[in-house]
Amino acid sequence: MERAPNVVVIMADQFKASASSLYAASGTATPALERLAAAGVTYRHALTPHPLCVPARVSLFTGQYPHGHGARTNEGGMPAGADHAFRLWKAAGYSTALIGKNHCFEEQADRDLFDVWCEVGHEGLTSARPARGMEWFRPEAAVAAAHATRRAMPRQGAALSYAVTDYPLTDYSTGLVAGQAARYLEERAGADRPFALWVSFPDPHTPYEVPRTYFEGALADDPQPAPAEPYDMPGAPERNRVLRRLLDVSREDHAEQQRLLAAYLGMVRFVDDGIEQLMAALDRSGLRESTVVVFLSDHGDFALEHGMTRKGGAFYDCLTRVPLVVSWPGQLPAGVVDESLVSLVDVLPTVLALQGLERPPGMHGAPLPTVTDYAPRAAAFSEYGAGGPPFRLEDLDASGAKGLEAVKASLEWREAEGRRRMVRTRDWKYVTDSMGDLDELYDLKADALEHTNLALDPRYAGKRAELRELLNDWDHRTARASAALTPTTISRAKGNS
Fold first, then answer.
1. From CA 328, how far away is CA 307, in angstroms rounded?
2. Which stretches in the chain have pLDDT values below 50?
3. How far is CA 279 from CA 284, 288, 293, 444, in A?
4. Would you state the pLDDT for residue 491?
5. Which domains does the chain have, with CATH numbers?
6. Spatial distance between the Cα atoms of 56 and 75, rounded to a whole number of angstroms
7. Around Cβ 210, how many Cβ atoms within 10 Å?
């Protein structure tokens, strides 16, 4: 029997799809990602199931939406005992590895499933979780020195913070992760077992620190902030207006806005060079034809859309639309663009299908179209909140905190507030919260920037009802799938892995 393919999941943190030239004319140059796309299938309308790190990552590796797996905020991580990807791959005899940012596997039992564990976060290495199974290729003191700026970032405005620095490229998290993963791949050449590698770049997430060469390249392209709504965001839900108060940079000096945007886009360029390193290592090792490569992000970044920076509990495309490319030379179509609506919860079912491994019951996702024979989908979904009380403008005013201090002070409250759900089709988006606040309805064909909320316009009542019905169908379907995950079926799934 032919050996099952290896898998390399390459994740960039907070990389919005339109930041790349693969997805938008305004995106920065990402030639390595475009070469990967030329050798695979690009999904133009891939969405995150939750625009926040931990819930999105848990969803990716379980194939479930947050309301199924229960990880709804950044506190915590993968639920104990979950049948996630690395448990399945380990049971199937795969060598397993994480190189980069974790923010998902907090249980020791889960981390023990990894043969190689090389974790680095936004501020460097952590002494609590030293490298295991493979030594870092760079001295840890050099890595710590290169992350010093991230631990004490300069501030150019209340919510504006970026840095341009000159450390060795190999010691930034992006260079470190790419170099380490390339060495891992070279060591796997000729191995007698297939492997599953998660390459997890901490960038282009905050802190927005970028090597000078990448910053200057991005700035030379004269990046322009997207037009923003008025500061008070008329017609928007209160939660979006709270975010604008917290994260607004639209009233900062235009040159500073450009420099902030160039810092973010420069980080995207750096990640793209990391992708190039990984693909070159696969080629050198003779592994390319036996390896499924998936590139994606967990969620996006405002990157100055809607006048804001960073991320928050909103469902604009800049936060929910992510890049997704799947490549396996000789086995999957090459240079194809799939226009259907897909989700990160579909990635694990897809990879398992390509590997010939059984999919456990209870998954909400389904194998992706084009790379499998599953049919295209016309809608995709996302959610946010854990049923907590709303964080209102009056709560922000009462706190007395301003800028990034207010962002940090209100973070856990805002992550948990409400029970928001979103459905997106090719041309429309609808958002509702059973706990209150305004609904949102956007005509994406006429209003790509999502500035005009049509939810209260009686002329669109029919469209609103149609999309609400899609949400209700999704609720019922995913509830049935979750109900299938009983202790008996969990045992059976593990026995068949």
1. 39
2. 1, 485-497
3. 9, 8, 9, 35
4. 30
5. 6-383 (3.40.720.10)
6. 13
7. 29
Structure tokens at 422: 């979103």
Instruction: Give which of 444, 190, 469, 413 is closest to 321, Cα–Cα.
Output: 444
Q: How far is CA 185 from CA 31, 126, 281, in A?
A: 21, 23, 6
Q: What is the pLDDT of residue 486?
A: 38
* Residue position matching structure tokens 């696969």: 282
Tell me the one-letter amino acid at 72: R
Determine the Cα–Cα distance for residues 365 and 376; give it in Å rounded to an integer. 13
- Three-class secondary structure assignment of the chain: CCCCCEEEEEEECCCCHHHECCCCCCCECCHHHHHHHHCCEEEEEEECCCCCHHHHHHHHHHCCCHHHHCCCCCCCCCCCCCCCHHHHHHHCCCEEEEEECCCCCCCHHHHCCCCEEEEEECCEECCCCCCECCCCCCCHHHHHHHCCHHHCCCCCCCCCCEEEECCCHHHCHHHHHHHHHHHHHHHHCCCCCCEEEEEEECCCCCCEEEEHHHHHHHHHCCCCCCCCCCCCCCCCCHHHHHHHHHHECCCCCHHHHHHHHHHHHHHHHHHHHHHHHHHHHHHHCCCHHHEEEEEEECCCCCCCHHHECCCCCCCCHHHHEECEEEECCCCCCCCEEEEEEEEHHHHHHHHHHHHCCCCCCCCCCCCCECCECCCCCCCEEEEECCCECCCCHHHHHHHCCCHHHHHHHHHHHHHHECCEEEEECCCEEEEEECCCCCCEEEECCCCCCCCCCCCCCHHHHHHHHHHHHHHHHHHHHHHHHHHCCCHHHHHHHHHHC
Structure tokens at 428: 């429309």
What is the structure's pLDDT at 479?
Answer: 87
CA distance 250 to 243: 13
Q: What is the pLDDT of residue 481?
A: 78
| Paired sense of beta strands 41-47 and 336-343, if any | parallel
Q: How far is CA 65 from the centre of its chain?
A: 14
CA separation for the pair 133, 135 (Å, rounded): 7
Q: Which of 321, 286, 296 is nearest to 199 (CA)?
A: 296
